[in-house]
From TrEMBL:
InterPro entries reported for this sequence: Beta-barrel_TonB, Beta-barrel_TonB_sf, Plug_dom, Plug_dom_sf, TonB-dep_rcpt-like
Protein name as it appears in the record: TonB-dependent receptor
Residue ranges occupied by any TonB-dependent receptor-like beta-barrel domain in the UniProt entry: 214-678
Its membrane topology: Multi-pass membrane protein
Domain of life: Bacteria
Residues covered by the TonB-dependent receptor plug domain: 46-152
Amino acid sequence: MKKIYFTLLIIGQCVFAQNKTEQDTTKFQELENVFITANRTATLRKETPVTISKLTAKTINEAKATAVYEIINKTPGVLMVNLGNEQHMMSIRQPMTTNAYYLYLEDGLPIRPMGIFNHNALLEINQFNLQSIEVVKGPVSSLYGPEAVGGTINLISIKPPVDPEFKFGVQADNYGYRRFQAAGGATIGKVGFHVAGISSLQENGWMTYSDYNKDNLNARIDYNISPSTRLISNTMYGKYYSDMSGSVNEEAFNNRTYKSTTDFTYRKSDALRTRLTLEHDWNSNSSSYITGYLRDNKLGQNPSYGIKWSPTVNPTTAKGEVNSNNFKSYGAIGQHTQQFNFLNTKLVSGALYDYSPVTYWSYVIDLKANLNPGEAGKQTVNSYEIIAERPESKLADYSADIYNYAEYAQLSFSLFENLVLTFGSRYDNMKVNYENALDKSTGSKVYDKITHKAGANYNPFEFAGFYGNYSQGFAPPGITSIFRAKPGTGGSTGVPAEFYYNLKPADFDNYEIGGWVSFFQNKLNFDYALYYMEGKNELLSIKLADNSTDYRSAGETRHKGIEFGASYRPSKQLNIRLGGTYAQHTYIDFKLSDKPSDPVQNLNGKEMPAAPRWSGNSEVSYYPEWLPNLRTSIEWQLVGSYYQDQINTVKYDGYNLFNARIGYQWRKIEIYGNVMNLTDKLYAYNVSRTNVTNAQPTYTAAAPRTFVFGIQYNFSLKNKY
């Protein structure tokens, strides 16, 4: 058995203590912590043969995050990459990537349907509505379906409180960010409710052209029909608009010249998600639920990453694009859980149906490139200007109806007291009926797969346990990739558009073992996991010389590493947490080019780019007894060196980063401050370059030292936060 949550839960044991008595009771007592995500039902950690972590409400409250990556990065083996204004990439048992190998859940339901992955999906999350976050590392496709490959993140919302509660606050930093937030709820008779809203605004930041605003509202109503039957509704609505400042060149980065090359790129999102769940407990060993849901998303952008510019062909001109991706989803999921007395057996089974119509279009915009001085062929762009929009010059224009159907089952049982065996299987079928306006084609594509998992937990001692598992992952290509014109075709090229109709689904086989050990009455804890994952037909993007993207299915990739966490709590005043991972991500069979003139024909044996071998997050927290309601912490974020390109010519050195946090609760008022990038480190969230000779790197610059301040009022009839 493995207790990765030790690494996380110790962080937040004393936050917001109201008095000495309460602080004395805030001890680490999470040995039997309950998780939902790993088995789709409440399960003890010692019965879960996967690597799973839990970030509690106290951890979330202590972080006082402006963006959710500040919380999720506290998980060992997880690197959520900030791209600015809550945009992000992810790295869990994968390089830092935007690929569809992560599944993001909201109370157990995917935020996006299969086939419409968006790496920025978590920017729609309301941080003020989070009760906890559960992170599963490695494939859980047998329970949650495709895209649950590198990891699964389940954001669990706050339930209605028994007694009336209300809180509101403001948060701001020294670079023009401010956020207003409020939440409240109560239970009256059989009905409980909770409502949470935030409004964030960024103006005149450290990077030019980097404003954004975000408004989110979440509402949950629970109706307890009877002691055994519950009706739960949950609705979110969010609007988001952000300038896209993009990356900077090497000279600008080193000089801290944080100037965007554009003043017209943007990303916007309107999102509505609503669901209604009926739960029923048939008896103490049997329960069921059925959920009906609706999603309605409108996504539009003029992306900075979509600008195509070649320093050698015509350096004073460039191309950009405007695109729109809109979809709705209508679906239902039902599940039954049955426990048996024989061998402590538990069976979880369910089915899902999802219908998601989607439309997508993208067209070319002509740009003027204003150059910085430099040698021909090595110049960089100072700024871009829009010359003309070309709605008639399409890069993509399609509509599709996506039908997802799935059935799953998982069986766990104990052969003897200290051994739990788990077996699971799932069948997924995704059918896409499409109409591609660019090549005037219509048709259907079907991606289906049966995925399995098998695992065991062995807990021979009170202070130690072990687990092992084999699991499969499955990820069909996103339809945006399939129906996008290949580089050099379509648009204004004069060449008929060609598409990626032959992209194959990616398959993964994951093997892992892990364990935990606890000493000194749970004051010292250590956990670990070793994994080996093989990928076949993994969808990879090739960054071409003009910054355009080509898609390929790699023949085979390999991902292996060790994840570890340690925590030490010698007293109520001090918590020490250490967490990290060492990993290698390698191309095994990946043909890059068929051209004899290209210096590199394949990438076999080379490391994947944007794949640091070392990464980690550690923290020391101090809660002084001489001032009971004070909390302080210092956090260390480590990202090791990694290759910038696929042909392994140049590395980025990575970075060490420190953050400090302090907060004090006086009666119902909480005052806090965070210092992000405490030492004012010059670093980049991501650095990349193309595979051509003398390619220029692009830097996604990170913020300089930032001071965050906030005040919050917390009210409860219990007079207790």
